[in-house]
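FORM 7B - TANDEM STRUCTURE REPORT

SECTION 1: FIRST PROTEIN
SEQUENCE AND TOKENS:
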Amino acid sequence: MMNENEILELAGTEGFRAALTVPQNVPVNGKFRVYCEENRCGKYGTNYSCPPDCGPVESLHQKLLAEDRVLVVQTIWDIAGYKDKETVQHAKMEHNKAVLRLLAKMKEKGLTGFCSGYNGCPLCDPCRRVLNQPCLHPEQRISCMSAYCIDVQRLAEDCGMEFAWAEDKLYLFGIIAFHEENSRSCCSGKVEQVWNVDPARTALIIIDMEKAFVEPEGGHCIAMAKATVPACNRAAEEARAAGIPVFWVKRIYRQDGSDVEFTRYPVWDAAGRPLGPDSTGANSIEEPEGLVRRPEDYVIIKPRWSAFFQTELDLILRRKHIDTVILTGTTTPNCVRTTCYDAIALDYKTVILEQCCSSNTQEIQQANMEDMERVGAVIVRDWPEPSKKAAGGGGCISESAESMQ
């Protein structure tokens, strides 16, 4: 593990002045999102890293709070005034590229996370959002500080870093929020170990990742769901590559609401009756942008919270000789949790991919992960990078306990 001085020295190799803090000390103020909504950088609605595609402020803040530490970085540029737009734009672009390089260096040292900079992601020109195509780099794209609503001036002051609005100087900041790779699960801090699964006996289950649950305008929107789309899509891609079947579990209500839970009916009716077969837009049953379902994948329609309750899921899994399920999707306290408990009750080895699951708050997420771990589920942070897989283990993922042996 790198110590504080080593992390700061590594930041210096990219020309940064840097300081370390914790996520709870990063000042967030929702008023800064207006800078994005006013489209001051010209990327609103045209770049996957920018609003509204990057998700609401609440989900981005919860993403930040889920990390262990935050590296605050700064570059200072000579400019001929803010009207020198070409120089200012070049500085911001180079600043972002340096942040991404530093994030890659930290990953090589065993520290993984995400970063934020200025003016949106610079990786593709134009962004695939403009072309209505999936993002090419969902794990690398960099949202700006305004999208995260970070009060940069306060952050700089709290970290003892220089901040000023000057005619001849441009002060640029960024953050890298990170944790030590393979060092913990979200709830117990157990050391993650390599677990070799048999792809022929394992299934990936993606629960309720539909627009009505994921999109900010959706009738049943879960605050943190939008931010999990890239991780869920990567898990699906990695599963298929390993020969692991992918199951999409969806909620589809009758248009007249005759099959809606009586506890949910008033909310469902008031929200415009989402998740019907004819629902459109943000209330539809479609997968959100960036989440791709393939023709070879399975689709299971469930009438209640659990993916097993009155569905053919258990029948198909047993017919395919599956004994291990990997759970992802939303919401963690409801549909993921009930599916987890039913899976364990049916004697399936059960794994939860933490960064592929979502709740309305980090506190809810944490408490439910802890509860599921206590009953025997294995909580892992994310599907591992291909380079982290054990030699010859096409179906390797990381495990946080030895309970799967």
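SECTION 2: SECOND PROTEIN
SEQUENCE AND TOKENS:
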Amino acid sequence: MKRIVKRVLAIVLCVCLSLGVFDGIAYFKLSNVVVVKAAATADGLASLAEAQYNAYHGLAYDNRYGTGAWCAHFVNWCARDIGLSTDVIPDTGRCTVMYNGMISKGAQVVTSPQRGDLVFYYKDGSWCHVGIMISSTMSIQGNINNTWYKMSPNDYINDGKIAPTYVRPNYPVTSHKPQGCFDTATNAGDGKIRLTGWAFDEDSPSKSLNLHIYVGGAYGSGVPMKTATANVSRPDVNKAYGITGNHGFDVTISTTFTGKQPIYIYIIDDKLEANHNTRIDKTMTISVPNHKPKGCFDTATNAGDGKIRLTGWAFDDDSPSKSLNLHIYVGGAYGSGVPMKTATANVSRPDVNKAYGITGNHGFDVTISTTYTGKQPIYIYIIDDKVEANHNTRIDKTMTISSNIIGKEDNIIGVTDQKTTSSSEKNGVNRVSSENINRLENIII
């Protein structure tokens, strides 16, 4: 008879379940639980707890343990739902077991709570209540009069107020990828580019990170790597992310690439983990650098018969093996109306090549005729290799040109607007002093 009754009850129960007779009973219906996708982190635990606020009352979370107080049941349910290990928050519905288990697995009692910490309450020799902190001052607590409360932990009452104890679970260590922004990439002239931006790592938010920079190709493409550090003050970044330290970068680097080129900056992970760096990139048009020609007017001497002999050297860093053209004026500068003579700096000058690490022929030794006599200025314009306006270099001297007396050589009287002295010699090569290079006149030829 008993077997028959059991069989009939089982059949009735199956029919009721299939018809949804028990759908309104919380023990069987868990659809009122709010499901959110959250990571197994402090923020994930707090986010899931917040999502349950004002959802169906705690009986939905009792299903695993049966009826009764459900504050610890709820914390445990949240921990399991986001995938936290039972070593972080034990698999239990009892506050005391939960507290002791957490402490034994490395959880820390803290005085300044933060999001994702748990708040426990102790009374009459045991831990009687638990909630989840959603900020440093607010918590989500269940099973207070069998409903939810979003409240300050200091406001919990159980026959009088009970002081809260905050416990920080021993969450698994997470490694964040660095964050950053490549703000600008601009030409800085002379084959250089200037790059600005910022970078930091949440795992070490006060530390300045290293950067690896590639121009013309990404890591692994074979292009050379430049290094820098994001250690420039960026108070705007610190304010936006709530961090401290210096995280900006403003670096100028040299490059041989020109034209439209990609620039890749790799922010190196603080923990130096493989495949955990962050790449930020831009494409820019790198202008072709154009240096002014260099040169020196070594000597100006009388060659007799209305002629003068001029010697020196000239070259252009942009085309260091090319022999440059010269424009020569006796008696006045370009634009003064005096006739122009032309020549080329194509005489071997091994001393110049050695001093500057270049090849080719860069000396000049020219003899020109002139109708001018007496003390006269002589101007030599070294023509820029790219023949750009206002980019030539002028070197000059003043000499006394003798009348047509063959073989009489006059002394060099001096140098106009420049000095050629032993103090500005390099490896025996006469050079225009750095002070006077800046004073050389630019002129359009």
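SECTION 3: OBSERVATIONS ON SECOND PROTEIN
Helices lie at 2-19, 42-52, 71-81, 95-104, 235-241, 350-356, 434-437.
The first strand starts at residue 108 and ends at 110.

SECTION 4: SIGNATURE
Preparer initials: ____
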